Amino acid sequence: MERLAPSFDLKATHRPLIPANLGKTSSVLFHSRRFLSPYRHINLKHKSEVPSSVAAYGKVQCSGQRFMESVAKTALGFGASAVLLLSIFSDSPSFAESLTVAFPVSRAPEVNAVQRTLVEAWGLIRETFIDPTYNHQDWDLKLQQTMVEMFPLSSADAAYTKISGMLSTLGDPFTRIISPKEYQGFRIGSDGNLQGVGLFINAEPKTGHLVVLSCVEGGPAARAGIHKGDELVEINGERLDGIDSEAAAQRLRGNAGTTVTVKVKDSGHNHGIREVKLPREYIKLSPISSAIIPHRSPDGKLTKMGYVKLAAFSQTAAEDMKNAIEELETQGVHSYILDLRNNPGGLVKVGLDVAQMWLDGDETLVNTVDRSGNMLPINMVNGHAITHDPLVVLVNEGSASASEILAGALHDNGRAILVGHKTFGKGKIQSVTELHDGSALFVTVAKYLSPALHDIDQVGIPPDVQCTTEMLNPAKEISNKDKSPVSSLEADSCIMVAEHELDVKESKGTAS
Prior knowledge:
The chain is α+β, with helices and mostly antiparallel strands and 512 residues long. It is built from 12 helices and 24 strands. β22 and β23 (440-449) form a beta hairpin. α1 runs parallel beside α3 and α2 runs parallel beside α4. The longest helix is centred in the first third of the chain and has 20 residues, at 109-128. Residues 1-99 and 469-484 have low confidence and may be disordered.
């Protein structure tokens, strides 16, 4: 999956990444689990001395038999080398009963460990990948070839490159493996319970200096007076020259209750450097921000417009969205703008949960198509929207995946007008599985169509109305004395178009 945000200084706690069910919906589309083999058992055994005649045992069918014969010849080619014995007990149609496969085991322990990861990844692809032809290749033979190529390697990085190479032959850029370190970063973007000091940092492209993008409101860094634009100079006495943002974030992360000392250069007029000791704490990172935009309708009536920005579909996004809508309702808003611009997606289940907050009845939220071509509509069951106020959804070319599912569900069911620019066009759904070594495998398991059966993949969703400054009056200039979040929103040309569309909808008396 795409990176959800810049590097965080946060450490994810060990929680299930995604809830086990869809609540009111009827199927899980995006899930995470620790490694669970598609087979009943996979036993990996290491032996230092195995007769060269050990190759394959058991009765097999068709493609499985060709695969075993090929592996047998390869194993024999290694003479008396150590081998990896893989015992498989399967309900898969390719295997009739238990069998054992021998693979040459690398003498490098770290490569040996990646060989097991290879088998895990291969098995998951074999059972779940959306294309049952595996891009018109013999997937069983691909395992054998990759294992042989991995045998003479001496480093884990090189071995992982071989796994990536194997996955690339599937012709799907979204099916991939990421390292344990990268997976931690993914979880930080998807989990709501984190540990750190509440800093978002990134490297300034021209200088390479590490600059604060923002601070989590109320977090340790914000309380210490660190601001957007400040430069991070040292962490625990170590200079950060040449250190990338991810490495710096790793140094800032840590268990709640510990501390970290940082030196920061003020982005203000004095550019002074100061040292700050920051406590690490549990921090809730919400992907939701909201505001009330004062709005004067064409008849001169002053109303309140609720604005909700959803930055990513993280694990806490649905709960945070519910709380935001309910709070805005208590403040008497009359209409809503839901901003999905530059939202790259995340957990599909969360996107469906959010859709149900705006819709009633038994509406179809999305249609999935599995590897056999079977289409399954995912419907609400007796849904009850939190609000029926008019709604506009903002989208652009950065709105992808779960954002497109949500936008499609609200648009095709007549609930919302889409304003902005055509969306990214990612109409495939991935499962993510944590493997035994802490790495993670992303597998495309289905494609989806909108409720009106529009294909989104590589096409995107066109808006009902594009937003350009030429459509209405030019965006308002904001003075230096008035840079509040609300005034910034009022100067956004797309929000101005959204306000206009809501006025038009209200003047027509259209129910929503």
